[in-house]
Amino acid sequence: QVQLVESGGGLVQAGGSLRLSCAASGRTFSVHAMGWFRQAPGRQREFVATITMSGGSPFYSDSVKGRFTISRDNAKNTVYLQMNSLKPEDTAVYYCNNGNIWGQGTQVTVSS
Known about the structure:
Layout: E1 4-7, E2 10-13, E3 18-24, E4 34-39, E5 46-51, E6 59-60, E7 68-73, E8 78-83, E9 92-97, E10 106-111
Parallel strand pairs: 2-10
Antiparallel strand pairs: 1-3, 3-8, 4-5, 4-9, 5-6, 7-8, 9-10
């Protein structure tokens, strides 16, 4: 059974950076496109970024475009989200998804 485990969240000041990781168990990682989503308190979960099976065609929400970068290493069964120029409105629990399964999430808090 595939499991997704996010890590790398934390507390950072506005303008800072964090790198999130999502490690997948199982042998089917490379056949799935992967995505990052986030959910702020009192708000619905929203799309952040996605990347294809081969690591191409990254796509971002308008709110993070130019600041966040999604990438993946299929040899390590891991997808990353590099977050730069963080803003307080980026504060949320960040989740990865393979189209079927959600991880448990990792908290990102950006102080002003």
